[in-house]
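Standup notes, structure subgroup. Blocker cleared on the 3,4-dihydroxyphenylalanine input:
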Amino acid sequence: MNPLLVNPGEEFARIEQDGRRAIEAATTLEELEAVRVQYLGRKGRLTLLLRQLGQLSEAVRPAAGREGNRVKDLLSRLLEERARALEAEHAGAAVAAAVEDRTLPGRARWRGGLHPCTQVTDEICEIFRTLGFVRGRSPEAETVWYNFTALNTSLDHPAADAQATFYLQADAVLRTHTTPMQIHVMQSSPPPIRVVVPGVVYRRDPWDASHAPAFEQVDGLAVDEGISFVDLKAAIAYFVRELFGRETKTRFRPSFFPFTEPSAEVEVSCTVCGGGGCSTCKGTGWMEIMGCGMVHPAVFEAVGYDAERYTGYAFGMGITRIALVRYGIPDIRLLYEGDMRFLEQFA
Ligand code: DAH
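Run returned:
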């Protein structure tokens, strides 16, 4: 016989008691959901019972209805509370487990890294440090005198032309090379001098695969009594072997710079093909990496050094270019666009 028809109040009380117990006993959200279905689902115990209320007599139906709805509301609320408690417990357990498991490998997070040009700069300066050179800095904005005149470069020189130089004012420019550091260094200290100065230089160059209006250079200067071209060659040959590897060959070709005499261009055997000829060295087997020479007496004169007593050598190279060759980067713009997908590779 249908229990409701005998004593609906008692049946609702039983459902309430069983339901409470089942909800309390559920230890996972899945179990809890099963309990909900069992009592409140479409074919749940309470649902079925409530559906039968219509069969009750007018006299008992309203009271039974109220009781049924009370139990339904109660169980719904208990289910919700239990669900919240289980969720919290679950989250707490996950945190506790994470704290306790000290064998879990740490989560690697990329914290940034040094730009490839910075890495090459540091390497270059480090090699010269082992030869006794200190690392210095020099202004990016210069007067025409520092950038050109004191370096024995007349304003007729193509480099001084407005085509290649960014003028800030009639007499001020963004340095077109790091070479003016020679003047600052010699003005502020007496010989002996051994210094390298890296930095950004500016030229009105196009923005394409091999040119940028701002790029990096490093200049070096050594001044003392009795310094000769042999010292220059030895220092550069050592530097090339350290930077590019023992097997790399160096050669000096006569060249011209206003601030050195004699002047030379340094070429190294192509680090990509080893000298056989490839696209990087344009088939020649050699790559030009720097300019150098013996400090011109006119430069010593400009800073008040005694050119009879002191001699020195100087060199300058494009760091950006060395980075391109070193890492096989096909387009200089990659170095200056700040694209993380590119930069991450050098971390
Ligand atoms: N300043 C030259 C340039 O930008 C490079 C250079 C050549 C620097 C010879 C020097 C040097 O110090 O001695 O092309």
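Discussed briefly. The radius of gyration is 41 Å.
Next: hand off to the docking folks.
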